[in-house]
Amino acid sequence: MLKDYQTTLEEYCKNNKDRARLLIKCPDQPGIVAAVSTFLQSFEANILDSSQYSEDPEGGNFFIRMEFDCPGLPEKKSQLEPGFAEIADKFKMNYEFRYVSSLKKTAIFVSKQTHCLMELLWEWQNGELMMDISCIISNYDDSRELVESLGIPFYYIPANKEIRNEVETKQLKLLKEHGIELIILARYMQILTPKFVSNYPEQIINIHHSFLPAFVGARPYERAYARGVKLIGATSHYVTNDLDEGPIIEQGVERVNHRDQVKDLKNIGKNIERSVLARAVKWHLQDRVIVSGNKTIVFS
Questions:
Q1: 18, 28, 244, 260: which one is catalytic?
Q2: SS3 of residue 53 by DSSP
Q3: Confidence of residue 142 (pLDDT cuts 50, 70, 90)
Q4: Same domain, 28 and 143
Q5: C-alpha–C-alpha distance, residues 42 and 147, integer Å
Q6: Is there a single domain that holds both residue 49 and residue 155?
Q7: Are 114 and 71 members of one domain?
Q8: Which residue of 29, 58, 96, 279 has the smallest Cβ count within 10 Å?
Q9: Cis omega before residue 27 (within 30°)?
Q10: Model-level pTM?
Q11: Is residue 4 part of a domain?
């Protein structure tokens, strides 16, 4: 199965070698879309998809996601990006070109519960999540057999708050060696330090097992049960130094009732968690997310 998937990856990259996405955030003003479209046309690019959003036409920010096909793109890159700088300057743009054939090198962090990890691996094997899973890191050894059966490097690094700095030093070394561009916390039950997070701004995606901002922190299902909630949920967000308060990418909920005990809430929640995390990761991989302050713009 892994060999088939590697073939799929290679075919995907080959078929998309001329495809790229342009993400833009800038102050709203007339002429932005026309200027960008004209520029891409000058490189014989065909715009396949264009989504835009204005926070407020009078003084707000403007966001664009454009996906385009450009014949000979690998050879044109060296002129495309420097050439766009003049337009970016004029409109005061924060922007980035992302190339579809450059799959993001990804590390998945997991603890004892594996339902989110298994969902990610399943969708990865089926070609739903186009990423290069470079390694999986865990503070439990339980997932080793599953991960290594797929040919993915597995690193067991025991962790707790007493040795957190030592652990993160090892983890950061591994991430650097693998050239990691995206970290997915698939129910990794350790708090990351500001030093760790600062190395990967807007590149760490977490799944929290509650419908944030309700029940931030530990034991949310127990606290939801004690409060007698009628809806439980899960939230996938980018990690910041504020616990469970980073920009939200995706959320999901499910109805529960007074008959459901804590164990029932956890079982129901597992399905929500894994689907919410998988959607958030997919949208990140497809460059559909732009962060604005502590919010996200997610283009469908």
A1: 244
A2: strand
A3: very high
A4: no
A5: 46
A6: no
A7: no
A8: 58
A9: no
A10: 0.95
A11: no
Contact 110, 136 (CB under 8 A): yes
Instruction: Look up the domain containing 123 and give its range.
Output: 105-298
Where a domain ends, among 99, 130, 156? 99
Please tell me whether residues 243 and 292 are part of one structural domain: yes
- Tens-place pLDDT, residues 255-271: 999 999 999 999 999 99
For residues 277 and 236, the answer to whether their CB atoms sit within 8 Å is yes
Phi, psi for 183 (deg, rounded to 5):
-120, 130
Q: Are residues 93 and 122 in the same domain?
A: no
On whether residue 239 sits in a domain, the answer given is yes
111 in the same domain as 65: no
**What token pair was written down for 163?**
């040795």
- Residue 8 within any structural domain of the chain: no
For residue 244, indicate whether it is catalytic. Answer: yes
